[in-house]
Amino acid sequence: MSGTLAVVSQSGNSLSFFDIASGQRTAQMTDLIPEPHELLLEEKRKVMYCSHAYHHGHFWAHGENGHQISIIDPDKKQVVNIIDTKPALGPHGLVLDRERDILWCSYEEHEKSEGGGLIAIDLETHKIVKRVGSSTKTHWFVVTPDGKKAFTCNKTAPFISVLDLENEVMTGKIDTPGGTEECSISPDGKHAYFPTPGTQLGKVPDKPEILVIDTATDKIVDRIALGGGAQSTHVAADGRILVAEYRFLDGRPANGRLSVYDPKSRGLIGRADIGQMPLTIRSSPDGKLGFAANIFSGSVSVVDVSSFKPLETFVVDTEKSKFSNLCQGAHGMVYFP
């Protein structure tokens, strides 16, 4: 077990680096722009991109929308540039299109029109070169491997938006009455996975499930029943579907579970106990390790996804936010081999 994990504290405005073999924090950046959310590594320029969604708070209750993406040198542990996403506000999800050398970013609102969508940022000029509206607040999204199509998680909205990225137009909606959470896509791009219903703080929803979307037909072709509500999915390199399930007992957060499903049978393979309110999930390139950011615990659980044995817990930031009175101490992550 080797490598480095970089993880942000949303409410602590910090970025920590952990040595996976020793479990030790090796470095910490403590002066990020408020509310760092998602992290993405770009190997070509050897930098990370970090979105800043709000000035403080969280999706359900927050201050003014952010409008920045930090560019971070992971070797120097420095912010080396800032991308301004205006007029797109509330940037969140990040997806890299290596072939076109652009960074796709979701946004929740726009200065000049209603609703959110996606923007494409040229990584040489840092200019916005495309914008595709989704007709509502957009939080996360997936892009097909050919870079032509996207499906958006709109959280509380009762639909998934289908976007044509080449022609910059929304082409359809997939009905999801309960809303959806963080989505993922299979390695071959044929299926996208959306947890539903949307997160309900204080309780586990009735009949939580993963919607399996056929990306060619834009249809729901299967449903994976879950044992608990889910805030996110992630597909490992071998195609296995990792799901972060949260739990509440008597209205109070309890430890969650990292559940793993087979991509063909879509049956449950195994589960591991993790921390409270797991949000972001990532995995090692070989698919052997799963990482779950437990936002209410302010920690990251490292799990062997073959034996489903928790291997390590990285304590990131356990302080409560002075604005929300919640611990929002672990969110976006990047794994370095």
From TrEMBL:
<dbReference type="InterPro" id="IPR051200">
    <property type="entry name" value="Host-pathogen_enzymatic-act"/>
</dbReference>
<dbReference type="InterPro" id="IPR011045">
    <property type="entry name" value="N2O_reductase_N"/>
</dbReference>
<protein>
    <recommendedName>
        <fullName>Surface layer protein</fullName>
    </recommendedName>
</protein>
<dbReference type="InterPro" id="IPR015943">
    <property type="entry name" value="WD40/YVTN_repeat-like_dom_sf"/>
</dbReference>
